[in-house]
Design brief:
Layout: H1 5-29, H2 36-47, E1 51-52, H3 53-60, H4 64-76, E2 80-84, E3 92-96, H5 98-118, H6 124-142
Antiparallel strand pairs: 1-3, 2-3
Length: about 140
């Protein structure tokens, strides 16, 4: 069954908005030498410190091998450190370093600049409406 034209247009508009947002964000993050994937890892570890590489890979929807390469770069830069798991000898957990926390904070400030630019011209009520509408989209698709 084919989607109605107005529904397809919303999907295309969402895709274009996400693509444009990601491009602008990547451009802002360039001085920090951070990719969006690296930023996602730092955010995940800020929210839940001590995840394993496998757990991070599942959350970020990448392969374990890709996650290992991404984490290796963050470890090399001193933004993340690996530690032995408290009870499982072969598992290494990942933790933000102080430098990682600072880099993430800098990245979040840069992301806020992009978001403010994107929402320039929206009233506070329109911003809230947009958030609610996007959450409704997520909920609707999540229930399928």
């Amino acid at each position: 069954m084919m989607a109605a034209p107005e529904q397809a247009t919303v999907g295309i508009a969402l895709r274009r908005a996400l693509f444009t947002f990601r491009q602008a964000l990547q451009c802002q993050l360039r001085p920090l030498n951070l990719s969006l994937a690296h930023t996602g890892i730092l955010l995940a570890l800020e929210q839940e410190d001590g995840l394993s590489g496998a757990e991070l890979a599942r959350r970020e929807t990448v392969t374990a091998q890709t996650m290992n390469q991404l984490v290796a770069r963050l470890v090399e830069r001193g933004l993340v450190e690996r530690r032995p798991h408290a009870t499982h000898g072969r598992i290494l957990t990942l933790h933000l370093t102080e430098a990682g926390r600072q880099t993430l904070a800098d990245g979040q400030a840069m992301a806020a600049v992009v978001e403010r630019c994107m929402l320039n011209g929206f009233s506070p009520a329109e911003r809230q409406r947009l958030l609610r509408d996007l959450e409704r989209c997520v909920t609707a698709l999540g229930s399928q």
